[in-house]
Write a structure and sequence with these properties.
It is a single chain. The chain is of the alpha/beta class. A hairpin with a 2-residue loop joins β5 and β6.
């Protein structure tokens, strides 16, 4: 017989990726009682368990820069005290935990968000499940930072799955690291549009020729460790990240590609002649699933125009339209990286975090209200930290004032965040 528990909190955060961590930390720092729920055994989502190589894009989030500064303090040797966007996942795991403990946040690892607790359109919390049993967690404010919006969907919030016209989604990737790389000669190609000509040919073209479809590109990134490179090179298409069978398929597909990728690196890429697989992610990287309908839906024109919304709660967000090829390796025809012309940071309005017809619920991270193309820009981790910081602040204000999320002004949120 499974045990059933009931507990209460001010704020419940589901998912602990950069967005969820930021929401939980900020809400607790501002005086709310907070519980954060995470399915993996570590805080951080893709930034840690997913072995992300670096913080890509940027955002005017004070918390994002605090994470960078505190990460730098943990660096070894020559890099100690030097801020870098490269990520050491092991140290970041510990930093996240320390920061959450500093503000008194209750942490529930190895725990799945199972279902929404609702009274009509009011979200009262969520049921979670782990080895101890089921727990109904009642919260004044629930923040869905699961990436896929699992609890928002179970609460009946309206969404579009993937691309608007056909529901297709960007491919999934399993990150891994190789050791034994000669940094003095190593090639680092940081985008699909990066090219490098060698005696044996151009590296992107060689990758497409020698790495089995649907993989077939080279993306290699420096790390904080000598001789170690992070590879963003596995690829699985036709994956629905909300389907457990598809997640299993993606893991199998990507793992099968790793040996072929290493063979390619050894044979064709300077500095990688003696490389070997050192470690791989324990969490498959899902780029896109549900886009929820909020009180406003951010679109690509908002980003291209660097629109400043009256109710913005995230500012100076900047990246490109990073749409990975839905049918194979490389960029989708709609994606741009080097040729992204808008150099000014854009803003994200508070309304994008508020689901259209639900109360006491905040969207947080890549599941906020945005189009397929806009999402390819705001889904990156620094911007997700900014979104989480805004969500956690809104939740703390709601609890403190005992008011609805819709009664909070963006100016109140900005003032508390410091933007």
């Amino acid at each position: 017989m499974i045990n059933n528990y009931k507990i209460k909190t001010d704020v419940l955060v589901l998912g602990s990726g950069p967005a969820g961590f930021a929401a939980a930390y900020t809400a607790a720092k501002n005086g709310a009682d907070v519980i954060i729920v995470e399915q993996c055994g570590d805080i951080g989502g893709i930034s840690t368990s997913g072995m992300m190589s670096h913080w890509t894009g940027t955002c005017g989030s004070p918390l994002y820069y605090e994470i960078l500064r505190r990460s730098a303090e943990l660096n070894d040797g020559e890099q100690k005290g030097k801020i870098t966007i490269n990520i050491d996942p092991e140290k970041l795991k510990t930093l996240y935990l320390e920061m959450l403990c500093e503000v008194g946040c209750k942490i529930m690892l190895y725990t799945f968000a199972y279902d929404a607790i609702c009274d009509g359109d009011k979200v009262l919390g969520a049921t979670v499940i782990n080895k101890s049993g089921k727990t109904d967690i009642y919260a004044k404010i629930t923040i869905d930072a699961t990436g896929d919006g699992d609890i928002a969907a179970r609460a009946g919030a309206e969404f579009v799955l993937g691309r608007e016209e056909d529901n297709k989604m960007q491919p999934a990737t399993l990150m891994f690291k190789v050791g034994g790389v000669d940094y003095s000669r190593a090639a680092f190609l940081g985008s699909f549009e990066s090219k490098m000509q060698t005696e044996k040919g151009e590296l992107q073209a060689l990758a497409k020729e020698h790495i089995p479809h649907p993989a077939g590109h080279i993306l290699t990134y420096r790390t904080t460790l000598p001789g170690v490179v992070t590879c963003n090179m596995t690829n699985c298409i036709d994956v629905d990240g909300t389907n457990a069978d598809d997640l299993t398929k993606a893991t199998l597909t990507c793992r099968k590609q790793m040996d072929s990728i290493v063979k390619y690196l050894r044979e064709f890429v300077p500095g990688y002649e003696n490389c070997f697989i050192l470690s791989s992610a324990s969490l498959i990287g899902v780029r896109e699933t549900r886009h929820f309908k909020g009180k406003y839906t951010l679109n690509e024109q908002d980003i291209l125009e660097a629109r400043v919304f009256d109710d913005y709660v995230v500012k100076d967000a900047h990246f490109n339209f990073d749409v990975h090829n839905i049918t194979g390796a490389g960029l989708d025809k709609t994606g741009v990286q080097h040729h992204f012309t808008q150099q000014n940071g854009y803003t994200i309005p508070y309304r994008c975090l508020l689901p259209a017809a639900k109360e006491n619920l905040l969207l947080c991270g890549r599941n906020i209200s945005g189009t397929h193309i806009a999402h390819s820009n705001f889904r990156v981790m620094p911007i997700c930290v900014g979104i989480g910081e805004a969500a956690g602040t809104a939740a703390a204000i709601s609890v403190k004032k005992n008011c609805a999320l819709t009664d909070i002004t963006a100016n109140e949120i900005r003032k508390m965040v410091g933007i």
